[in-house]
Amino acid sequence: xxxRSDIEIAQSCRMKPIEEIAxxxxxxxxxxxxYGRWKAKVDLSxxxxxxxPDGKLILVxxxxxxxxxxxxxxxxxxxxxxxxxxxxxxxxxxxxPSLGPVFGxxxxxxxxxxxxxxxxxxxxxxxxxxxHAIGAANNLLAAMLxxxxxxxxxxxxxxxxxxxxxxxxxxxxxxxxxxxGLGGKANGTPREDGFDITVASEVMAVLCLAxxxxxxxxxxxxxIVGYDRSGKPVTCAQLKxxxxxxxxxKDALKPNLVQTLEGxxxxxxxxxxxxxxxxxxxxxxxxxxxxxxxxxxxxxxxAADLGAEKFFDIKCRMAGLTPSAVxxxxxxxxxxxxxxxxxxxxxxxxxxxxxxxxxxLLRHVDNVKNVFGLPCVVAIxxxxxxxxxxxxxxxxxxxxxxxxxxxxRVWAEGGKGGEALAKxxxxxxxxxxxxxxxxxxxxxxxxxxxxxxxxVYRAKQVRLSPAAKxxxxxxxxxGFGDLPICxxxxxxxxxxxxxxxxxxEDFTIQVSxxxxxxxxxxxxxxxxxxxxxxGLPKVPAAEKIDVDEEGxxxxxx
Length: 557
Fold this sequence. Notes:
Helix content: 25-40%
Strand content: 15-25%
Radius of gyration: 23 Å
Number of strands: 25
């Protein structure tokens, strides 16, 4: 079969007008705000007006990422299409891509092959302008903060303890550490500063966890931007910025409706980083998918130890959501990589390496089943190089844990290749559910971190730096000790060392610092070397992207 790139497949698709897609999701034209023919925003009032009961919530997560790729978003989309093919009303809810990875190395987040959401060019680029609005709101707060200092500093803000950064939705290492306010008294107060990428902004996390415009404003007002000279936190509300920020975010709060290649309704909305923030699409998009479908299929960023843990412990806890089933995506190639096979040799059968790599998958399975109490299925994202012996070994090991394996061929076959997975998911949704978070909120900050590190990562111990211990005491003294924990950790390992592949044991998690995200409603615990502003690779993906005289984009995956 002739190979076609993702963008070539997407551009050959005959999309349906967005009002037809909306009708499939029980959304009338009066509730749509159209952005052209193929995309629209949905009015939040629909959540209150709709009398439909909530559907089943299905989370798609994955094994620890590798350069071989796992295909989590592709599987999520293909599963939703597969559910539609077996007669179920399914709706998918995904994150929006950041321009940084699109032009960098990771690529977009619109799926792949014959399991994509479209129009993929729009989704991967400016889409409906949500990220630009989030960046503008973030930077308005930064401008008002510095202006307050310039105009007399009535709040007595300590310029050495400003925590709020400006942001831009692009990988740009040059902006990580800067000095601004130069040029004399009229041009501001000189200080060390820096930029985050937009998806790392707390405004992104706030928007994705807000339930409505009132909740959005309240959360924005709680954002801590720095500390005064006595050590007390200074908030966005004290700067009187939350109203103007909410005005910038009014439309961005509404979820975006698009479609899969097979016409399944898809909400694509919000995109917080999974190793810095909570890594899930917006709460309002998830609720919309639950209300408009019998099955809502969503995903969480990176592996189950990051995205799924935060989905369960932060998002589900805040929103009162209970998942019905979990899909854990893996590939034979990625498992062999965890077993020590170099990327260039992954196409060859290697049962010994597969056996060494399987503990990574099995630990994620065990966590979902026994830590969080949820039924799950392993979806093997099929590659032509997979051998029958390799697939049989994966199935055997999973069955020993009481978990079925479904072969997913959605990349090559779309929804047809996801029917077996869809049938297993429907079956799992009827099983008993013992869902519970990993830890109790009303426990000390250090104990909550230890629970995640011990129960999910399987770390031997957690070591907080002196600065982190001091910060934990301050957080509890200020009344924020009952917030959930958002671990900032490498995505490439269960540990905080990206080189420890597979299922490492007897390691120590080092926590270097803690940060209160009072608006989002969680405490970030920093481990390892986590960057909030990535850089471009040696050969950026942007070098291959172009547009012809007719406006047709090429090179976008």
